[in-house]
Batch of 2 targets.
Target 1
Amino acid sequence: MTITGTTTTVYDLITPEVRADLITLVREDSWPEMTYDQGERGVRQLAAFLAVAATTTERATPSLRVDLFWHAFVLHTKHYAAFCDALGGGFIHHVPDRGEGHDPAEGRAAMRRTAEMIRSAGFDVDTEFWPSDGAADCTQSYAGCSDSPVVK
C-alpha cells in the first residue's frame, strides 16, 4: 500500500528510532525472547493493520502479538498521532473489549477477518503474527482490542 501521491510505505512512516523503541518496549514488557527480526516483522504487521483500520468501516481486531506493538505505539502519542494523520483516515482509537459474554469463537473469527482485510489490501500477512486458526496468541479468547471504525 502506498500513501496517496507518494511511494512511501506505511512501514516507512514509522521512523527507525521509533521502530527500535517499539521493539524494545514489547521485548521488555511482554515478549522477552523476541528476536530483533521478529520485532521488525511485528512493526510491519502493525503498520499494515493500522493502514487497514484507518480506512475500513468494519471493526478491525489485531492478534495478540500485533496488539502488543499497538500498545507500545500508542504510548508514543506524537508519533502515533502523526502516523494516523499520514494514513488519512483520522486518529485510530484503541478500544479494549472487556464486556461480559464475549464469545471466544467470535474473537478468533474477527482476527481472521482482519487478517483477510490486510491481505486484500495488498499487504503480506505473517502467520507468526496472524495464526490461521486464530487460537495461538489471540487475546480474543477472553477479551480483546479493536479499532474504532471509520464511519462514512
Target 2
Amino acid sequence: MTSLWLTRALEESRARGFLGPGAIEPQIQHAEGFVEAWRAHRADPPTTILDLGSGGGLPGLVLLDVWGHPTTFLDSMEKRTNFLLEVLAWDDVPSGGSVWRGRAEVLARETRGDSRFSIVTARSFGPPGVTAECAVRFLHIGGLLIVSEPPEGADRWSATGLDQLGLVSRGTFRTSAGYKVMEKIRPTPLRFPRSSGTPGKNPVF
C-alpha cells in the first residue's frame, strides 16, 4: 500500500511540473520496478541508495518508502532539490533522506560519495555511456547500477565500454518496463568520471 506522504509528495511534484502530467500510480509502479530488479539479484535490501538525477523524486522517494534506508537524491537543479528538501522535512517522511545538488561527475569524486553506495538508480539521467560513467564511482565493489530502459529493444550498453569503467552487465530485468542491471566488479579507474561536462560531450560508448 502506497504511503499517504508519498502520494502527496508526487502529486505536489507533478503540480510543480517536475513530473509528467500522467496518473501517479503508474509512475509509482515504474519506480517499484527498481526494487524488483534489485530483489532479482540480491536477497537483502541495499543499505545505501543514490538516485542519480532525481528530478521530481522518482524513483528515489519510492525507494525511501519501500526500504527506509539512507537515500541520497542527487540533482543539479536548484528548484528540484529545494522541493526534495521540503518533502524530506515533512513529519511523516522516513528519516535518512539527503539531497546533493551539483554535477554528478563532480560530486562522485568527493569523499562523501566515492564508493559509498550499494545501489545507484537512474530513471532518465542520460544516454547509457554518460549514465554509466557518472554513476560508477559512487558504487562500492559489488554494488548495482540499475537504469530504466524501454520495454523492448536492442541492448544499448557496450560490454567493452562497461568493462573500462569496472562494470559488468547482469542483464535486463523486465516487467511492464525494462531495467538494465550492472554490477561494479573492481575499483573505478582514476580517470573516471572525467571533468564536468566531458561525459556528455564525448561518451565512453
